[in-house]
Amino acid sequence: MEAVSPSATSWLHTSVGRKVVMAATGIFLMSFLVVHLAGNLLLLRSDGGAAFNAYAEFMSTNPLIRVLEILLFLGFVLHIYQGLYFIFRERAARPIRYSLNRAEANTNIFSRTMRLSAIVVLVFLIVHLRHFFVEHRLLGSPYTMYELCVAAFENPYYSAFYVLSMVFLAFHLAHGFYSSFQTLGLILNRRIERAVRWAGAAFAFVIPLGFAIIPLYFLLRTL
Ligand code: HEM
Question: Which class does domain 9-99+106-221 fall in?
Answer without folding.
Answer: mainly alpha
